[in-house]
Hints:
The chain is mostly beta strands. The chain contains 3 helices and 13 strands. The longest helix has 10 residues, at 150-159.
Amino acid sequence: METISVKPVGVLRTPYRSPAEAPIQGHFRPEVQGEAHVFEEFAAALADVEGFSHLTLLYYFDRAGEERLTAKPYLDDVERGVFATRHPGRPNHLGITTVRLLERRGSVLVVAGVDMLDATPLLDIKPYVPAFDREPEPLEPSVHGPKTSVGTSAEVRRSGVSSWRKGRPQIQPRRIMKCGMLSPISITRMPVPSGSAPSVPSGSAPSVSRSKPGASIVK
Length: 219
């Protein structure tokens, strides 16, 4: 059994204190600003980041509640595999958002288009590169039928924003940790049976738990 310890590189500050306040996706409120406070020990990693207009933030849903394997998408009334949704209560509780970089102030990044809760642990920052990150003709399932183009699905989203908000899952909030006091995240991988696909190098989907400072938690 392999355990991986992930250390937060910073904390995200946003105006959203509860899930009911936050948008389903940052694209619905592109003007709302937030800040990524990178811890000083990682400040050197921000060199040259201001050359990019957009950044992709990887963070930990520390108030997402229990892990789930199925969930209802916001515009659907059928349970789907959680890997086919963006539900926060997923294995590892990992979230990802692409934001617009407005300004860098030392180790603080001022960004727009945030959709995460205030004091969310920040795990990584990657530059958004259209040539690498944008697919020319992506497809996704429509709510009531087969796969459709993103443009068609976007029309469904625009007409269903209010129903998305009504269907937002109720996430039980936990205590917000203070900036700079975040503890490591322990990730445990279960062994893969022999004969598994070689593309999975060391384990199946890991489970994530937050440990207290100085403690080691294995789930």
